Amino acid sequence: MITASAPNTFEERTPVDESGFRYDPQRCALVVVDMQNDFCSTDGALAGCGFDVSAPVAMTPRLAELIDRARRRDVPVVWVRTEHDETTDTPQWLGRVGTGPGTARTALTCRPGTAGADFYGVRPEPGEPVIVKHRFSAFVGTDLDSVLRSRGIESLLFTGVATEICVESSLRSGLFHEYWVSLVEDCAASYSPAAHAASVAMVAQNFGTVVTADDLASMWVARPITASTP
Fold first, then answer.
1. DSSP symbols for 147-175
2. pLDDT at 101
3. I need a surface site. Which of 84, 108, 127, 148 has the fewest CB within 10 A?
4. CA–CA separation, 67 and 76 (whole Å)
5. Which residues of the chain have pLDDT under 70?
């Protein structure tokens, strides 16, 4: 019998090898965050405020292809959308932004019943859950956790906009709710290349894994479905 002593330092510890189940179609879900006109369209509220939406526009066809691949592989697709109205616009929430360049008031975006709140470029199919959120994180004030656990989901693959705001906020919350989390970097987008890159680096360093759409497509085809979580 071979025995081994416990590692004495952090550097000696070997991380759990989650590769067998993090991307397992039976355990993961593709989470699509805030793909809505106000956040993505050239006719949306943020574009009207001067935000550069070219990255969300360019990313959308790639995300649409990934969603199609997920559906064909029976990976659950979970949709998250934002709505704001007078019942959710607290003074603290509306007053959170500063007065510097690159700020926009949430009151300008995703009002219920407006075209700006509609999905942009991609949309759910019947039976796919749609979570309505009122803050950056998809877990705050929603039933997302219950929806995921009722489906046996253990790992979340985050996509959408904006990378460093609602996508990263939701990803962090997912980890804090004890899910494995990953960022699909080429299926997320921001209004600033630097902000997107910084968020990708932050996720990779502290919160989860960073993958591409092609990575997932390859793993979903090649990876055997595992029987149990280590």
1. HHHHTT--EEEEEEE-IIIIIHHHHHHHH
2. 61
3. 127
4. 9
5. 1-20, 98-107, 223-230
Give the pLDDT score at 10: 33
| Set 24, 38, 133, 186: catalytic member | 133
CA dihedral 51, 55, 57, 62 (to 10 degrees): -160
Q: Please state which CATH number belongs to domain 26-84+104-222.
A: 3.40.50.850
Please tell me which residue in 28, 40, 110, 166 is annotated as part of the active site.
Answer: 166
215 an active-site residue? Answer: no
Output the six-digit token pair for 162: 């904006």
Q: Is 133 a catalytic residue?
A: yes
Give all strands of the β-sheet with 180-189 in edge-to-edge order.
130-133, 77-82, 28-33, 155-161, 180-189, 209-211
- Rounded to 10 degrees, what is the CA torsion of 130, 188, 204, 201? -140
Q: Which of 24, 28, 34, 38 is catalytic?
A: 34
* Residue 211 tokens, joined: 């993958």
Q: Between the CA of residue 166 and those of 83, 104, 146, 147, 222, what are the distances in Å?
A: 13, 14, 19, 19, 31
